[in-house]
Amino acid sequence: xxxxxxxxxxxxxxxxxxxxxxxxxxxxxxxxxxxxxxxxxxxxxxxxxxxxxxxxxxxxxxxxxxxxxxxxxxxxxxxxxxxxxxxxxxxxxxxxxxxxxxxxxxxxxxxxxxxxxxxxxxxxxxxxxxxxxxxxxxxxxxxxxxxxxxxxxxxxxxxxxxxxxxxxxxxxxxxxxxxxxxxxxxxxxxxxxxxxxxxxxxxxxxxxxxxxxxxxxxxxxxxxxxxxxxxxxxxxxxxxxxxxxxxxxxxxxxxxxxxxxxxxxxxxxxxxxxxxxxxxxxxxxxxxxxxxxxxxxxxxxxxxxxxx
Length: 308
Prior knowledge:
Number of strands: 12
Shape: rod-shaped
Structural class: alpha/beta
Number of domains: 3
CATH superfamily of the largest domain: Periplasmic binding protein-like II
Largest sheet: 8 strands, mixed
Radius of gyration: 33 Å
Low-confidence stretches: 303-308
Mean pLDDT: 85
Order of helices and strands: HHHEEHEHHEHEEEEEHEEEH
Distance between the termini: 85 Å
Helix content: 25-40%
Number of helices: 9
């Protein structure tokens, strides 16, 4: 009859277990004596004997024959697991160091749609060069909900925007990334396409592609012939490219400009500039978050000075 290998788990009580016992056992075997093991470990011979005896009591069997020093079968089993455990502890120490230095872990980033598309990918590529093992989770979230998620601890970093000033409540800490212009997107064959600038107040209201959900601080005229009930500027730009009107759009939303669309700087009344911030919680000790903000800063447009 074949012998069936037991797979039943034994519930050892680890209360009071000391990893030093395993180190002491290994030292006795490696040096061949309790006295030499004590010299290596800075212990008396009596202390070495006591630690080996304590390990044997925990194991419930003899691990070491004393004269001469030799491992029993149980001792060889324990020492084998000690070697595997030591390797695991070395790996644990390395991973903890990686975590402390920001080379390991997870960061959760909330960002508005244009930043998800045109800002985060480049910053993430730069971040990954120095932090290849850090997991990044990106959420597409508008500024208000993003700040709420940050305060609640549901994300580690929020990328938000505002026109003029943005009220960011304590204990959140904003880091300005850049200012960007709001431009007028017009069909490439439109008469305004060649202008050096245009005053939004002089644009025929009927020509505007109204997008009240796109977070632009302006009142949309009822006379606009085309209304878009959504917040995706790529849809607005597609409508402009198809000749359905003109529309103000932030620079980040048209990076790069789509085919069939020309961009004209705005002047005079209207939303001229938008400011973008990276926001983290005050006192958050997360090196990956700091590094990711650095990558965002390094990869940000130069304060809205990019050529149009």
